Amino acid sequence: MILLLCGTAFAGKSTIAARLGKDDGFTIISLDGIHQEMGNHQPISDSQWAAAHKEALRRTEDCLNEGRSVVIDDTLCYRFLRDSFRELADRLGVRSCLLVLQIEPDEVWRRLNHNRMFPNRHDVSDAVIEQHIRTFEWPGEGESPFVVDASQPIDIVYRIARNHVMGRNQPSRTP
Asked: DSSP code of 72?
């Protein structure tokens, strides 16, 4: 299985990915981690993004060929990125699931500012966040996302996400 985590910066994707890795044995493919390994720093160029995405696809395919489930920890802010992982899943005959962690822009800024006061992850410049929010392509027609309100406490978000991923019935949208 490929679990695609989609959402803006500071939505909680890395936290959800880490818990799924720990609790359920998902292999985490982190684009932030790949960028760090490649020595990429903000702002990241188009060629650096392309190289990191290609590496993420390669790692994902290797894991799936070994029978491991994978969680993609990335914003997946453009449909073509999500489509490339779904196409890989289809080609290999494995299930893919698109989990959208949705928060409002004001909450992104609140979490960014909190992170600046109490660093828990790398910082992102205001200009990058503004462009990210402005150009984010939310899943649309034919993508069948499972949308979770990520402004809730992370334990609730995790429980809802995990129940869906593990096949327990949940509504398609949280209140």
From this structure: E
CB 35 within 8 A of CB 44: yes
Q: What is the pTM of this model?
A: 0.89
Extract the tokens encoding 74.
């990335």
pLDDT tens digits, one per residue of 47-67:
998 999 999 999 999 999 999
Distance CA 30, CA 155 (A): 21
* Percent share of the chain, pLDDT over 70: 95
Q: Coil, helix or strand for 68?
A: coil
Mean pLDDT of the chain: 91
How many residues appear in the chain? 175
Taking 70 as the threshold, does the pLDDT of residue 127 lie above it?
yes
Detail the DSSP E strand segments found in the chain: 2-6, 27-30, 70-73, 96-102, 146-149
Instruction: For Cα atoms 38, 52, 129, give the angle at the middle one, nearest 5 degrees.
Output: 95
Give helix 79-92 / helix 46-65 axis angle, nearest 10°.
Answer: 20
Q: Name the pairing type of β-strands 146-149 and 96-102.
A: parallel
Give the residue from 11, 55, 40 showing the smallest Cα distance to 158: 11
